[in-house]
Design goal:
Length: about 350
């Protein structure tokens, strides 16, 4: 029985065309499109960037060096990221499946591209339980480790997952990892292909970690959410609270627990901040974390972390309070803030290390 559906992003949830970016870059630089395509869209550079081995700043530095231009990172990043538009079939199907199945996005992508589509596709992506992005987890399809990230984030065995991708080699990788697979083709009805696996908008309910959602058809706003895991109720939040969280998430950037763990393992320099209550912090927290509770952090952040350009990763119990705190810090001028999606709950669920209070 299928419990989780994993969607690729490019040419599945949304279409893309790198030609859009090269044309706009040519307009701004006066350089030939072919030169831009060869230097800025170089496959080896793309793999490095999408694997998280180089930062956005380093990627843009190399592009500017190769093209011999001096445009700002902000302008260059905006031009490079402008390549997406929605796939109506899949964007229309997602909310119909969301109340019955766990949805995960599994994409080979870069920070600049994911930042763009997370903003432009916020309503559709709001129905997904998790986003597994190659630049965050340090793995790309068709590496088996990428698919393992997907089913672990879903909390579902691989044989109960179906992976949808437009590239045959990526579906082959999913099948090697034990998942079902569908090669997506525009013009071939996806709903019918899913039905062959017993999947439908009115199909069997999720059992791995259910999220019961009622959506407003025009705005896809959550009206009530109950989150379950291993048969136990974890949280119940009011509709108005969820609404402000959803609005905040449209304005901020989020990292998965796997991405934060990878950053710690690589020894990257950033500030990890726990925004939970004092009693929650005292029970356990992430190693190397600083405690600044929600409501306190806005008051004390400038004293504790005075550099508004410092990289800061916030976390809470499940990712809601940290999203709100990240939104507030951005309003205060902090420009490099992230919220850890899933919070300490997902960190604990992955078996990652925790330390006691102090």
């Amino acid at each position: 029985m299928i419990e989780t559906i994993v969607f690729d992003f490019g040419n599945v949830v949304g279409f893309f065309d790198h030609g859009r970016a090269t044309r706009r870059l040519a307009e701004h630089t006066g350089l030939p499109e072919e030169l831009i395509r060869r230097q800025a869209m170089d496959p080896e550079l793309e793999i490095e960037y999408e694997s998280g081995r180089i930062s956005s700043a380093e990627f843009l530095r190399r592009v500017k060096e190769r093209l011999r231009i001096d445009h700002t990172d902000e302008l260059l990043g905006d031009l490079y990221g402008d390549i997406f538009w929605p796939n109506p079939e899949v964007c229309g199907l997602v909310p119909q499946l969301a109340g019955r199945y766990r949805l995960v996005l599994g994409s080979n992508t870069s920070e600049l591209h994911s930042r763009r589509f997370r903003r432009e596709f916020a309503e559709t992506l709001g129905h997904f339980h998790a986003l597994v992005l190659s630049h965050e987890v340090g793995q790309r399809k068709p590496d088996r480790a990428f698919y393992e990230h997907c089913h672990r984030r879903a909390g579902t065995p691989p044989d109960r997952c179906v992976f949808i991708d437009d590239l045959e080699q990526n579906i082959a990788g999913a099948r090697v990892a034990g998942m079902h697979g569908i090669v997506y083709r525009q013009g071939v009805e996806l709903r019918g292909q899913l039905a062959k696996l017993g999947v439908g908008a009115c199909g069997p309910a999720r059992t791995a970690d259910e999220t019961a959602v009622q959506s407003n058809a025009s705005q896809f706003q959550y009206t009530s959410v109950h989150i379950f895991k291993q048969g136990q109720i974890m949280a119940k939040h009011s509709p108005r609270f969820l609404q402000i969280v959803d609005e905040a998430r449209k304005r901020i950037r989020e990292l998965t627990v796997d991405a934060v763990k990878a950053k710690l393992d690589r020894g990257e320099k950033f500030h990890l901040v726990d925004v939970r209550e004092e009693s929650e912090w005292a029970k356990d927290h992430l190693p190397q974390a600083l405690h600044l509770g929600k409501g306190i952090i806005e008051r004390d952040i400038e004293e504790k972390l005075p550099d508004p350009g410092a990289e800061i990763v916030l976390y809470c119990g499940g990712g809601f309070r940290s999203a709100l705190a990240a939104d507030n810090l951005q309003k205060m001028g902090y420009s490099n803030v992230f919220s850890m999606d899933g919070g300490i709950r997902d960190w604990r669920g992955q078996g990652y290390p925790l330390t006691g209070g102090g």
